[in-house]
Backbone:
């Protein structure tokens, strides 16, 4: 039992960690937090005054205006009389009633501003953490993102940050709770000292015993829940993306069952948390009511308690009991919310640790000759071996270069290394005389237009999709690019033309049309290096031929442009200027395509 109380105090480290995390992310405005504490304090001070004034008011009515009796009725009445006397104000029922009204109205006004302020603080923290988490993840390395999943991503950038923000709200409630208790205790102590002391000791004892035991259990369950929430989101997003596979393999029931298993666990855990909190309330309210009534009864019997004292005592206790209850609920709630910060912090720190720090300072390059791989090694993870081994080859500037090789030989890995999506474990990659790591990342992204093997269209208009990442582009350039990829006629035939929405992942287009839009996007970027990883695999050979002819025209027009394409079709790479053949992560052949074909 006491062990749990000690554990409860250890939560302090958790709270400190949470605040440090918020400070690190610069998630809140200190001045606003102080203001919220100040408003909270003032609200309660006025509440205390509002309730306190009831004591003299009731006493004054009871003693029927007899000042001497009034002064003797309680400490509070004495203090009030002295203060008013000092100010030369005459005591009256109207004065006391007006004061009560004034205090209560002021309390409500302050409460109004405080509620809005707290909501603003929480929403701001939520927004800030969301954005920080998002940008930190996006800046992280391929290795980190590769090991990540969609569910975790949504949780880390939305759901859990909300919990992290709510924790701050919890702190503020916690503070007002303690203050409420202190204020009412003061009122009660001034009304009747000993009974209050006894009552408070009893209630605190119950709160700590029940609160700590239940809080520790809640902590364990909440930590489980954070994991389960992420697992569930991961499952549903993946199933949404793979809905066609689920339908064609007729596995809807199986998948539903799989979701149900996780949902069941979430259900059990969340009910458990509520059960714990409800049990705590049940025990607390029952025990405290019994104790209060017993104490009150014995006090009335043994100390001559007058009617005013009984009323005040009851009013304050009626207000105190829910405060104690909320206080206890708050401990549980805080424990429930805190694991979320741990989840975010761990992800944030790992993402930060694994982000690629840009050491490059070159921001202008005159590429004349070649891109050279010098003894490059690469593995996706430690368990893997020999994805790329001691790789050496050159890509010719101003030419169409083809990287060919069997599936899984490492072609996509190579082009990801050129575009610095991946970073080599060992070895160097030179752009003429500049090593890739010396080239500023921003400049490198401008230098290269890269179509990965799994390109992406946003759920947006054709226009926004093809001009994505490009600065202002003229209508002429847009239509020129669309003509090069043979999409101009199709788009002109659409009722909304360039404003047509392509749907989620571009699903309202055919596979080949999607590829051609992505090619147009890369062309519009107007970069010096164009990398196409199977960029025409879904179009018919005739269209592919036309596109390749267009690429040749581009090369002729802009001499310094370098094209690197990966293609399985012999007909495609036979027409290129230079071929690099890869097998099992090693170069098998490098040179003129004609000789390669013969060899
Ligand atoms: N994200 C990844 N994590 C771990 N291993 C990977 C990852 N991507 C690729 N690999 C492994 O690296 C090797 C090379 O893959 P890569 O994608 O470069 O091949 P490829 O030549 O482009 O193949 P394909 O012609 O099928 O596209 C493969 O054995 C693959 O299993
Ligand atoms: Mg590939």
Residues:
């Amino acid at each position: 039992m006491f062990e749990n109380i000690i554990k409860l105090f250890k939560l302090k480290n958790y709270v400190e960690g949470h605040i440090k995390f918020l400070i690190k992310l610069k998630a809140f405005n200190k001045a606003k937090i102080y203001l919220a504490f100040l408003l909270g304090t003032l609200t309660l001070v006025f509440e205390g005054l509002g309730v306190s004034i009831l004591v003299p008011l009731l006493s004054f009515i009871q003693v029927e205006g007899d000042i001497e009796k009034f002064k003797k009725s309680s400490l509070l009445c004495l203090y009030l009389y002295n203060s008013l006397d000092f100010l030369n104000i005459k005591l009256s029922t109207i004065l006391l009633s007006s004061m009560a009204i004034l205090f209560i109205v002021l309390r409500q006004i302050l409460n109004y501003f405080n509620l809005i302020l707290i909501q603003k603080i929480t929403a701001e923290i939520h927004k800030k953490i969301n954005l920080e988490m998002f940008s930190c993840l996006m800046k992280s390395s391929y290795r980190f993102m590769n090991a990540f999943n969609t569910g975790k991503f949504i949780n880390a950038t939305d759901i859990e940050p909300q919990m992290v923000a709510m924790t701050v709200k919890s702190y503020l409630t916690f503070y007002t709770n303690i203050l409420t208790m202190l204020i009412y205790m003061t009122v009660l102590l001034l009304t009747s000292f000993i009974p209050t002391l006894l009552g408070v000791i009893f209630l605190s004892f119950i709160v700590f015993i029940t609160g700590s035991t239940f809080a520790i259990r809640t902590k364990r369950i909440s930590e489980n829940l954070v994991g389960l929430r992420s697992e569930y989101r991961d499952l549903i997003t993946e199933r949404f993306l793979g809905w066609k596979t689920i339908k064609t393999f007729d596995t809807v029931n199986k998948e539903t069952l799989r979701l149900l298993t996780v949902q069941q666990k979430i259900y059990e855990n969340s009910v458990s948390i509520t059960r714990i909190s409800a049990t705590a309330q049940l025990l607390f309210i029952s025990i405290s009511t019994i104790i209060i009534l017993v104490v009150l009864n014995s006090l009335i019997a043994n100390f001559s308690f007058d009617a005013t004292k009984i009323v005040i005592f009851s009013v304050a206790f009626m207000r105190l009991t829910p405060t104690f209850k909320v206080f206890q609920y708050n401990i549980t709630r805080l424990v429930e919310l805190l694991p979320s910060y741990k989840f975010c912090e761990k992800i944030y720190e790992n993402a930060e640790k694994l982000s690629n720090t840009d050491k490059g300072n070159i921001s202008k390059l005159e590429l004349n000759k070649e891109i050279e791989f010098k003894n490059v090694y690469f593995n996706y993870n430690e368990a893997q071996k020999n994805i790329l081994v001691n790789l050496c080859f050159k890509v010719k500037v101003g030419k169409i270069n083809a990287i060919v090789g069997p599936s899984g030989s490492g072609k996509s890995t190579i082009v990801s290394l050129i575009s610095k999506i991946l970073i080599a474990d060992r070895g160097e990659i030179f752009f003429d005389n500049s090593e890739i790591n010396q080239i500023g990342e921003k400049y490198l992204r401008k230098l290269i237009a890269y179509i990965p093997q799994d390109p992406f269209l946003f759920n947006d208009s054709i226009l926004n999709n093809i001009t994505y990442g490009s600065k202002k582009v003229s209508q002429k350039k847009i239509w020129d690019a669309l003509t090069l990829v043979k999409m101009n006629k199709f788009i002109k035939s659409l009722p909304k033309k360039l404003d047509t929405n392509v749907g989620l992942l571009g699903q309202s287009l055919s596979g080949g049309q999607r590829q051609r839009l992505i090619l147009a996007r890369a062309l519009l970027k107007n970069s010096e290096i164009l990398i196409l990883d199977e960029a025409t695999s879904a179009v018919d050979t005739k269209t592919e031929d036309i596109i390749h002819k267009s690429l040749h025209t581009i090369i002729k027009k802009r001499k310094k442009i370098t094209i690197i394409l990966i293609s399985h079709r012999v007909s495609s790479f036979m027409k290129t200027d230079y071929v690099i053949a890869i097998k099992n992560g090693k170069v098998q052949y490098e040179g003129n395509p004609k000789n390669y074909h013969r060899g």
